[in-house]
Amino acid sequence: MRAPAIVQRLGPAALMGSGLLVVGVSGYGFLALAGHTLSTADASAVASLYLLINIIGPGVFSALEQETSRNVSAQLARGADTAMVRRRALAVGGGLVLIVVIALLAASPLLVPKALGGQWALFGALVFGSVTSAAVYLVRGLLGGSRRFGGYAATLAIEGAARLLPCLVVAAAGVPHAAVYALLFAAGSLFGAAAGLPGLRGNGTGTDRSGSVATMARATSVLVGSTLLAQLVANLAPVVVTGRLTTDTATAAAFASAFVLVRVPLLVFAPVQAMLLPTLTAAATRGERATMRRSLRLMLVAVGVVAIAGVLASLVLGPWAVQVFFGAHVRLPAPMLGTLALGTGGLMVAQVLQPALVALDLHRAATLSWLLGSMTLTGLLFLPGDPLRAAVLAQLSGAVIVVAGMGTALSSALRGRWHKVPLCEDNLQADVF
């Protein structure tokens, strides 16, 4: 089937970038709207909700997306059918939803008073947002694995629009409310998933060799540890700062806004895993290590350019932008934003290395890298003294540890210590670290 005319004209990268721009702008617009229309305490609680959804939702269910994409890509590389991959991914996704809901209920006595300003309605939005995230990430895994990036981009664009536009209507009506904003934001992912459904059609012919539900569940569970820890490293610091600065909500809100601002380069490269993973998986299935090395070199050069630009922009414009665009009442120092942006650069490198590890079945190596990074981050976050200084140090150090671990594992694998094992085997390959 021929791709739609717009896909042929723009190309997948441009489409993904356009969809990402919409969802990225919607996230910043949502926080800016909350900052300008809600009280300081409510704005801080809504910012924490935003960050928690971006820890729990993508942290758990992006693993489902990656493992689904890997299985679909491998099946298509063999010329096999992907129908069973879809059924298995749906079963695994349902199990993950149940686990997440149970975990949230168990953590609610701590989350609600500390991070969500004592508002149980925000907790309900958090649960709802986690469930809708499961739907959109499953759809994206199926689309990404079959390289249908037009449909993937549609899920991004519709999710972003559905998150922000209803909130703007509420604000224009003169009845802004933290709980309403939170529920509308959480509902956006459901609309994003629906937008991707038309792009899902049968792929390939031949025998299914994608393994069992148990095989996919084991691989996904290992990868969940990796992606959840990645989101913790990326987003935990402002949540902890908010909890430690309970008597200075203005500073806490300013730091949360600054933290989101310096993540702009991460948004630029967010589709990297979705677009890179199918290519690397196909190369790994065929044993083409040179292709993998070439792709990784190109992406790392691009990451370096964007990361440097992000650091410079954060140093020069960061403090001003936090106050103007997010309505912050406290001006943070430029070196603080520059250092946070440097940590963002490290996380961008990890975004490139992670799909390579997944393509090589080195799930455990990726998870161990994020575990070491999150342990470093958490330990430094609770250092006595200034919470902001501790958070900045923790963010940079955690990213450095993650990149070092992933780089060691991947370098070892690509030098020849990696032994290819068929992706359909019931046992995960022993990882090299």
UniProtKB/TrEMBL annotation:
Membrane topology: Multi-pass membrane protein
Main localisation: membrane
Record's keyword annotation contains Transmembrane: yes
Superkingdom per UniProt: Bacteria
Record keyword Cell membrane present: yes
Transmembrane segments: 12-31, 43-64, 89-112, 118-139, 151-173, 179-200, 221-241, 253-277, 298-322, 334-353, 365-384, 390-410
Subcellular location: Cell membrane
Keyword entries, A-Z: Cell membrane, Membrane, Transmembrane, Transmembrane helix
Full protein name: Lipopolysaccharide biosynthesis protein
Organism name: Amycolatopsis pigmentata
